[in-house]
Every structure is written in structure tokens, then in C-alpha cells.
């Protein structure tokens, strides 16, 4: 008996050891194969490159939990976002209760950890998203019926205990709107049991730096955001009570208490807001100019009162009402390192949103006042009846000696001097403004800047010697503007009308201004943003700034200005222009250029045209230009895009005149989209020399004439067109190295060409052309004596840098030679034509019947596919509704995905059937054409 027990114990012990060994060895043995297979499958199925340094699978790290972790996982975009790092993790780990995997309805996920996350979302100017990396699936019509998603009969449920995100860097960019956002050093923790009917849920979020900008305006310049929430969640009853909750922005903290309920399709809120700190310093931290590295040392005084309440129902058009009030009483702040302070700070702000009657909402800034080193700034404002008849009232007064600001605020390398005087009052109602009853409105005051000096604001020092604006209900008069920035200077005067309609009634701000300048250097004023490019490199993204960076023009949509300009020198990118004179009209989101003349490219130019930026993602360009005596080499250096499309221009020397009419689409950064360029015009020149061009080098070698390798083209007048970016030269006559000839052809966007040249070669320059003549006459079996001059036809195709050149006898001479055999050929042609016509009709009729059958069968299969997908989605929702709100919410996305995938498959069935039908007809037509 004892011996049996001993054997049993040995067997059990051996089994345990075996299980332990398998738990250790199996992940080690199979990990490389699993890792290789997972990476290969992901790269095959996604339009992105997936990289995984290591995979950790363990049964012991959290026993009885299964631990799975991906180390250094990266997802890098392919075209059209090649180089963008869409997603990266130092570690993505999941810990699952191993025992619950046997019951799909109660899977328990102990923890999900995302460590060192880097994510980058990018929407380009054409609306393409870099996270669309799942290509449409491909399947044959016969197999597609089996690819329709089907629901599983089993019920699934996942209980998540903890979600943790550590040290994340999240970025988003939309080129069409100019929006950029970034959250740096983000930590997030969610704890609770979401599978229970009632649960305590805790949330913790910390963002060390939050940036947000749109249209070139920065709204969040690097805020520190912290959020802590503890919620008593009645998941079954859909009620959530808040306790110990706070939201902090920089040093300003809000506490909120109350509850939110979701009965039916409504949302009921009753939440109060307060601040635990009543010192002014917490509010001061929200001011970017004040909140800096030395903010902790700032001395403050004064009290703060803040209160808010959100209460009501969100259902249909009704929203909860909200009341917020903020008061600051006789506050001050002072930096210990600076000699003066800001004091007498008083704020009285009240805002109310009426959820039931939104037009009863109001905003009232009863008082805002501050003295900066003795310089007073005061503001009052109010807005009432914002929907039916917006009424605004405001007063602004300021008297600033800007040099004293450095005594109050750390300007961080910036220097300001000069004086600012503002005294402005406005009171107006929209209905009065729309009816032009300006006698009922008030807009009165002036703004005057004098002897302003600003260093460190732009890349160059700025000087505003004088700026005077006078306000009245009818107009704002710019009496004078005298300003300098670097070596740029400007003088401007004029007036702006309809300021109140623009402010209140969606009216258009109109103006008439004159501008003169001795020099405008836009390269100096707006240098490339090197810091932004470095930031992109640091995050691992390859962003072409020149092509994708949006320039927001939305503020200009309701502006109509007419400029009469005179600029002695203009510098923009590579363009150097002198004596720029013309009229510019901005209105209706369009910029019109009228008779703009200048001297440039060692010649002169006159331009008229229109830039249309009514569309947010693509701008339209229409230009008519006359260029006289411009230098080709200078043009190639200035407009590098021309050399990219037409490399030959870099090998040319001479002067040309051009008449051009052009239409194109522009990106938001106003870069031409080459495949949208359409133009026509003509080019003239007395002489153009060409050196080291592959085309003419090959022509000279084939003909055996070195003069053609580096030719000079004389007396040129060529008409050209550009259609969808393809440049076509109509055949034009010229002398090529002294030889009379014609040139014509096309140059494509892919740097390929299809050109032809015809020349009449005298006996002294025949070269290899005589060999071609002899080969032709010998092939035809006739004897024709060689003429004193031989016309040749030269064709060039393929890449511009290495074209394939072919030489033949010109068509006229070939005709003379072939006339000897023409009569023999004619007899056969007529007999064959009759048989060919009949055979063509038979081929096309048969093909049409086959194509019609393909389309009909595909439609039947597609209709069946859509019906099955909808049935599966309905089944999934019916099952989910039995398991509560969370299951229903989770199932909605799955049901929508089922319908979407079913429709996608059905559409593909029909699309591919039509393609096959077209292919059948195309093959039939090709077969019929061969019978000619």
C-alpha cells in the first residue's frame, strides 16, 4: 500500500514538473515562430509596416493569469503617408485570468498596460487619413458569398479591471483646417469592474503639456491638465454619482459634485462647480504670459470667488442650463526679480446658458481692470439675446507705455517700446445694423500707436512709427500706417466700412487701401519654421511642410478689400521682383490681380488672374501672364518646379517671351498640384542654345553630326498646351544647328517624353541617314537613287534623362519609294475588307451576351449578400439587448460593422462583375480591331 502511494506521489510530482517545464519551454520554443507569423500576416494585410521587437508570453508572471506583452511595437505608414509613425509602444501588455478563458461570456481582463505610447493622426489636404491602413479585401465573385460576416451563437462578455496608459505622446494634425493638437507625457488610469451592475470607478488623467492650435491661432500653449474622478456607477440603472472629483488646468482647480443619469435616450445632469482655492494666484496661472518657469516665485494678493451649476435635461433640442460666475477683488501680482507690479486687478464676470430658451442666455463682463506699472487697462462687455437679435455693448480703455511692461512681466528676450492709446465704445443691436439705422448704434473712439519698437516678436525687429485708427458707426478710418520690419517697410492709408455688420450680422468688411513700399522681404518676415520640423523629426514623422502645411484663410471669407500697391522691391522664396505696381482685390474668398506689372528674371512681366480659396482643402488658380525678354537660366533657378517637370530647361541659355493662360488647383499651402495644371500659350525667341542634353546628344550620334549634339535653335515661335499636367508642343519650324526642321511632342508628369523632329539633311551632313535610305529600298526590292537631300524623321520616347531615339526617312520620301509596290498591295486590300467586317459583327455580338450574363449573376449574388449581412446584424443586436446597456452599446459598433462589411462585399461583387464585363467587351473589340 505504501509502495503504491509512493509511486502515485512520484507520478503526480513528475506531472507537475512536466507542466512547469512545458509552461517555461513552450513559449520559448514557439515564440520566434509566433512572432514571425504575426508580423508577416500584419504586414500582408495592412497598408503599413509593422515591427515587433519581442513577444513575451508567460503563465507564471501573474499566475493564475495569462500574461502577453508586445515589446517595442511600431506601425509605420506607407504611401501616401510614407514615413509617418502612426503608432508605437514600448510595451503593450495584457493580463487575463486564465480560468475565465473557458467561459467566453465572463472573460476577466485584469490589466491592460500601454507604456511609452506614441500616436500620430494626420489628415492631409485631400482628406486622406493616415490611420486608414486596412485595404479593402479581395475575393472572387464565386468565393465572396462565403465572406459575409456571421455572428457567433455564443455570448461574449469582458470584465476589465484596470486600463493604464503611461508616458504617452499623442499628436493630431489636419492640413485642410490647419488644426494641430498634442498631449505630451500623458498618464491615464481607469480602475473598476465594468461587468458588475454597480461598481466604484476611478479615473486619473495627467497631461504635462497640452497644445492646441487652429488656423494659425494657438488656443492652448502648453497647459498642464489633471483630472481625478471617483464615480459611484449604477451601470444597470444608468446613474453616475460623483465624489472627490477635480479638474486642474495649470494651478487652477475646479471641483464638481452631483450626478448624471441616462434614463431612456435622455441625459439628466445636476452638477455644481466650485474651486477649493480662493487665492488669485490659481487663476493667474491660466494666463500664458504669466505662467512660466518662475511662476512659483510670483507674489500675489487678492481674493477669488468662483461658482457654477449645470442642471437640466439633454433631450432633443433641449440642453441643460448652466450658470458661471467669477469675481476677483483688488488683486495684484509681482515677480520678485522685476521692479514693478500689476495691481488693482478686478474682475466681475457672469455667464448664463438657458437650455430651454437659449435666446435668454447672456454674458456680462461687468468689470475687468488692471494697472500694469501704473498703466491702466479697463474693459466692460455684455451680450444679450444672442440668437434672435444679438446685442453687444462694450467699452475698452488703455494707456500704455510699452517699455514699462518689461518692469512687470518677464518678456523672455522680447523688447517693447512706444505708446499705445485706446479709447473705444460700441453699442449695437443686430436688427438696427442690418437696417442701417446707424443713428441707433454707437461706435466711437480711436486707437493710436506711436514709436513702437518690438524686438523678438518676429524674426526681425519691428518698428511702427505711427498707426492711427478712427472709429465711427459708418467706417473705420486708417489715417496713417508707417511701419518697418527688418529691411521691409510699408506706408498705408485708407478706410474700412461695414465694421458693425461684419461684427454682428454676418456682413462683409469692405475697405479701400493704398500701399507703398521701398522693399518687402517676405523671406525675412516669415522664415521656415525650423522648430516645427525638428519636432516632427523627434516624433518620427516625415511631413512635407511645403506641400501639406495649411494656411487658414477662413477669416478672409467676409472681407472685401481693394489695394492699390506700389513696391520697389519684392522678395518671395526665390523670386526677386522690382517695380511691382498693380491692383489687388480681395472679396468673396477670392483674390484678384489686376494689371500687376513688375521687372523680374532680367525681363518684365504683366500678370492678371484670380486665386480662389472658397474650398477648404483645394484652392483654385487662374492666371494670364505676359513675360517679355526673360532669361531662361534665371527662370530655372527661380522656379525650381519648372526644372523638375522639364529638366531640359536647366541646359538652355537664351531669352524668351511668353504669353500664358493657366488654370490649376493649389494645396492649402498654395503649392500647385501638377496633375491639375491646364494652360495654353505661346513662346518666342530669336535664339536658344542647348548644351549636354541627352536627347540632342543621341540625335547627333545617330545621324553622325556633332553639330546636333550641342545645337542652337533659331527663330522659334511655338504654341503649347498643358492638359492635366501634360505639356504638349505643337509642331513648330526652326533652324536646328543651321538645319531647317520642325519639332513637336509631349512631356509627361512622370518625366517621360514623346517627341518628334523632322529635318532635311544636305549631302554634306547626311551621315548615317544614307544607311537608313539604303535599307528601306533594299527591303522593298526596288532601286531608287539617293536624292541630294534626305528628309529624316526622328522620334524620342521614354525617360527624359535617357530617351530612346529612332531615325527614319521622312514620310514624303518613304511615300516615293513605296509607290513602286503600291499597285500590288491595293488588289489584296479590297478583298480582305469584306470578310473582316462580317467577322467583327459576330465577335462583338457574342461578347455582349457574355457580358450581360456576368452583370445579372453578380447583382443576384450581391442582393443576397446584403440581406445576409443585415440579418446577422439584427441577430447580434437582439442578443446584446438581453445583456444590458454595455452589451448593447458594444454590439452597436459590431452590428454597424457587419452591415458595412456586407455592403462593401456586395459592392465589390457588382464592381468586379462590371469590370469583367468591360474586360470581355474590350478583348472582343481588340480582337475585332486586329482584323483590320
The percent range for helix content is 10-25%
What's the overall geometry?
A: globular
Largest sheet at a glance?
Answer: 39 strands, mixed
**Total of DSSP H or I helical runs spanning 4+ residues:** 15
Uncertain stretches of 5 or more adjacent residues: 4-26, 138-154, 530-550
Structural class: alpha+beta
Protein name: AsmA domain-containing protein
Organism: Candidatus [Bacteroides] periocalifornicus
InterPro entries: AsmA, AsmA-related
Pfam families: AsmA
What can you see in these coordinates?
This protein is of the alpha+beta class. Among the domains are: 589-681, no CATH class; 692-809, no CATH class; 827-929. Helices cover 25% and strands 48% of the residues. The chain is built from 15 helices and 39 strands. The protein has a 39-stranded mixed sheet that branches. A hairpin with a 6-residue loop joins strand 8 and strand 9 (198-214). The protein is globular. It comes from Candidatus [Bacteroides] periocalifornicus. The chain crosses the membrane at residues 7-30. Residues 822-879 form a coiled coil. InterPro entries: AsmA (IPR007844), AsmA-related (IPR052894).
Amino acid at each position: 500500500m505504501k509502495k503504491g502511494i509512493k509511486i502515485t506521489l512520484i507520478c503526480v510530482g513528475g506531472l507537475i514538473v512536466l507542466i512547469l517545464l512545458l509552461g517555461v519551454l513552450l513559449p520559448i520554443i514557439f515564440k520566434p515562430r509566433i512572432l514571425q507569423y504575426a508580423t508577416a500576416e500584419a504586414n500582408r494585410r495592412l497598408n503599413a509596416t509593422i515591427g515587433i521587437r519581442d513577444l513575451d508570453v508567460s503563465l507564471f508572471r501573474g499566475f493564475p493569469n495569462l500574461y502577453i506583452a508586445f515589446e517595442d511595437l511600431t506601425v509605420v505608414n506607407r504611401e501616401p503617408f510614407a514615413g509617418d509613425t502612426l503608432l508605437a509602444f514600448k510595451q503593450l501588455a495584457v493580463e487575463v485570468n486564465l480560468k475565465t478563458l473557458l467561459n467566453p461570456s465572463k472573460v476577466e481582463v485584469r490589466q491592460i498596460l500601454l507604456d511609452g505610447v506614441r500616436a500620430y493622426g494626420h489628415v492631409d489636404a485631400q482628406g486622406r487619413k493616415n490611420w486608414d491602413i486596412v485595404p479593402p479585401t479581395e475575393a472572387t465573385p464565386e468565393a465572396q458569398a462565403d465572406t459575409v460576416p456571421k455572428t457567433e451563437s455564443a455570448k461574449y462578455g469582458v470584465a476589465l479591471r484596470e486600463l493604464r496608459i503611461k508616458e504617452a505622446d499623442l499628436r493630431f494634425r489636419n492640413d485642410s483646417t490647419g488644426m494641430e493638437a498634442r498631449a505630451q507625457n500623458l498618464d491615464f488610469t481607469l480602475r473598476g469592474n465594468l461587468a458588475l451592475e454597480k461598481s466604484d470607478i476611478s479615473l486619473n488623467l495627467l497631461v504635462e503639456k497640452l497644445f492646441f492650435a487652429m488656423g494659425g491661432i494657438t488656443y492652448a500653449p502648453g497647459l498642464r491638465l489633471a483630472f481625478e474622478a471617483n464615480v459611484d456607477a449604477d451601470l444597470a440603472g444608468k446613474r453616475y454619482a460623483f465624489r472627490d472629483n477635480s479638474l486642474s488646468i495649470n494651478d487652477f482647480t475646479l471641483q464638481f459634485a452631483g450626478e448624471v443619469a441616462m434614463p431612456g435616450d435622455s441625459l439628466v445632469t445636476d452638477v455644481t462647480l466650485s474651486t477649493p482655492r480662493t487665492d488669485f494666484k490659481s487663476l493667474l496661472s491660466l494666463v500664458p504670459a504669466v505662467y512660466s518657469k518662475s511662476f512659483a516665485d510670483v507674489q500675489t494678493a487678492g481674493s477669488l470667488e468662483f461658482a457654477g451649476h449645470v442642471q437640466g435635461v439633454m433631450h432633443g433640442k433641449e440642453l441643460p442650463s448652466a450658470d458661471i460666475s467669477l469675481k476677483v477683488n483688488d488683486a495684484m501680482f509681482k515677480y520678485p526679480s522685476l521692479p514693478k507690479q500689476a495691481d488693482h486687478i478686478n474682475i466681475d464676470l457672469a455667464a448664463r446658458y438657458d437650455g430651454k430658451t437659449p435666446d435668454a442666455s447672456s454674458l456680462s463682463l461687468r468689470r475687468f481692470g488692471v494697472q500694469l506699472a501704473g498703466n491702466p487697462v479697463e474693459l466692460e462687455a455684455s451680450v444679450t439675446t444672442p440668437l434672435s437679435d444679438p446685442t453687444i455693448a462694450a467699452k475698452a480703455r488703455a494707456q500704455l507705455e510699452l517699455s514699462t511692461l518689461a518692469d512687470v512681466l518677464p518678456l523672455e528676450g522680447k523688447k517693447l517700446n512706444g505708446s499705445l492709446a485706446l479709447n473705444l465704445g460700441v453699442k449695437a443691436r443686430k436688427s438696427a445694423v442690418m437696417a442701417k439705422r446707424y443713428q441707433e448704434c454707437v461706435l466711437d473712439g480711436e486707437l493710436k500707436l506711436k514709436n513702437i519698437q518690438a524686438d523678438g516678436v518676429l524674426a526681425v525687429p519691428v518698428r511702427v512709427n505711427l498707426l492711427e485708427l478712427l472709429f465711427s458707426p459708418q467706417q473705420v478710418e486708417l489715417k496713417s500706417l508707417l511701419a518697418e520690419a527688418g529691411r521691409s517697410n510699408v506706408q498705408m492709408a485708407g478706410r474700412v466700412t461695414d465694421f458693425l455688420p461684419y461684427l454682428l450680422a454676418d456682413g462683409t468688411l469692405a475697405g479701400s487701401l493704398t500701399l507703398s513700399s521701398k522693399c518687402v522681404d517676405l523671406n525675412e518676415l516669415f522664415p521656415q519654421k525650423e522648430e516645427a520640423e525638428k519636432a516632427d523629426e523627434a516624433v518620427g514623422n516625415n511631413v512635407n511642410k511645403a506641400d501639406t502645411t495649411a494656411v487658414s484663410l477662413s477669416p478672409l471669407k467676409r472681407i472685401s478689400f481693394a489695394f492699390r500697391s506700389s513696391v520697389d522691391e519684392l522678395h518671395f522664396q526665390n523670386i526677386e521682383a522690382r517695380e511691382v505696381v498693380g491692383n489687388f482685390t480681395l472679396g468673396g474668398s477670392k483674390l484678384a490681380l489686376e494689371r500687376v506689372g513688375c521687372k523680374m528674371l532680367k525681363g518684365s512681366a504683366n500678370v492678371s488672374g484670380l486665386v480662389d480659396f472658397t474650398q477648404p482643402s483645394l484652392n483654385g488658380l487662374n492666371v494670364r501672364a505676359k513675360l517679355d525678354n526673360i532669361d531662361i537660366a534665371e527662370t530655372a533657378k527661380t522656379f525650381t518646379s519648372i526644372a523638375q517637370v522639364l529638366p531640359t530647361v536647366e541646359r538652355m541659355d537664351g531669352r524668351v517671351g511668353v504669353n500664358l493662360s493657366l488654370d490649376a488647383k493649389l494645396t492649402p499651402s498654395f503649392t500647385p498640384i501638377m496633375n491639375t495644371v491646364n494652360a495654353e500659350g505661346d513662346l518666342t525667341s530669336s535664339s536658344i542654345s542647348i548644351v549636354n542634353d541627352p536627347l540632342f546628344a543621341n540625335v547627333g550620334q545617330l545621324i553622325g553630326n556633332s553639330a546636333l549634339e550641342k545645337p542652337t535653335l533659331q527663330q522659334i515661335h511655338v504654341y503649347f498646351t498643358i492638359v492635366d499636367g501634360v505639356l504638349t508642343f505643337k509642331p513648330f519650324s526652326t533652324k536646328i544647328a543651321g538645319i531647317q526642321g520642325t519639332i513637336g511632342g509631349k512631356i509627361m508628369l512622370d518625366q517621360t517624353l514623346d517627341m518628334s523632329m523632322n529635318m532635311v539633311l544636305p549631302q554634306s551632313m547626311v551621315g548615317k541617314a544614307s544607311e537608313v535610305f539604303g535599307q528601306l529600298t533594299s527591303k522593298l526590292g526596288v532601286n531608287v537613287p539617293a536624292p541630294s537631300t534626305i528628309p529624316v524623321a526622328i522620334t524620342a520616347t521614354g525617360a527624359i534623362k535617357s530617351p530612346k531615339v529612332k531615325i527614319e526617312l521622312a514620310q514624303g520620301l518613304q511615300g516615293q519609294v513605296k509607290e513602286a509596290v503600291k499597285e500590288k498591295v491595293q488588289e489584296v486590300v479590297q478583298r480582305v475588307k469584306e470578310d473582316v467586317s462580317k467577322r467583327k459583327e459576330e465577335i462583338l455580338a457574342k461578347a455582349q451576351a457574355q457580358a450581360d450574363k456576368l452583370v445579372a449573376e453578380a447583382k443576384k449574388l450581391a442582393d443576397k449578400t446584403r440581406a445576409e449581412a443585415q440579418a446577422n446584424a439584427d441577430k447580434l443586436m437582439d442578443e446584446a439587448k438581453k445583456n444590458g446597456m454595455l452589451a448593447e452599446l458594444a454590439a452597436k459598433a459590431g452590428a454597424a460593422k457587419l452591415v458595412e462589411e456586407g455592403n462593401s462585399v456586395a459592392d465589390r461583387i457588382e464592381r468586379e462583375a462590371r469590370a469583367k464585363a468591360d474586360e470581355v467587351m474590350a478583348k472582343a473589340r481588340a480582337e475585332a480591331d486586329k482584323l483590320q
